[in-house]
């Protein structure tokens, strides 16, 4: 588990917006992103939270491909975020990744 070092916690409204952004147009993405947000987001460092939010700015087809191991984002921080999501969800048995 990552040590919580978040010096800039989100306001409740900002947190609600991030949670809403996890809801996508594809069920597979909802199944990958929502549990990660619900169970892991609050324990991420501030930088990890920022990277997660940046990841959510990408289109659904990119997110789907990255999460299903059909490519990687060019940004190394986003690659680490994808890997973190996959690993945490696998630990909980939330999503089988290809």
Automatic annotation (TrEMBL):
Origin superkingdom: Bacteria
Main location: cytoplasm
Segment forming the signal sequence: none
GO biological process, one term: respiratory chain complex II assembly
Cross-referenced Pfam families: Sdh5
Record flagged with keyword Transmembrane helix: no
Protein keywords: Chaperone, Cytoplasm
Location within or outside the cell: Cytoplasm
InterPro entries on file: SDH, SDH_sf, SdhE_FAD_assembly_factor
GO cellular component, as recorded: cytoplasm
Family: Belongs to the SdhE FAD assembly factor family.
NCBIfam families reported in the protein's UniProt record: PRK10878.1
Protein name per Swiss-Prot or TrEMBL: FAD assembly factor SdhE
Protein's organism: Thorsellia anophelis DSM 18579
């Amino acid at each position: 588990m990552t040590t919580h070092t978040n010096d800039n916690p989100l306001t409740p409204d900002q947190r609600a917006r991030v949670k809403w952004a996890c809801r996508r147009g594809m069920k597979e993405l909802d199944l990958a992103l929502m549990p990660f947000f619900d169970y892991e987001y609050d324990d991420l460092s501030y930088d990890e939270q920022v990277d997660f939010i940046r990841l959510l700015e990408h289109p659904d087809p990119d997110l789907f491909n990255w999460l299903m191991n059909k490519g990687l984002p060019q940004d190394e921080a986003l690659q680490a975020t994808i890997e973190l999501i996959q690993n945490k969800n696998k630990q909980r048995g939330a999503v089988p990744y290809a």
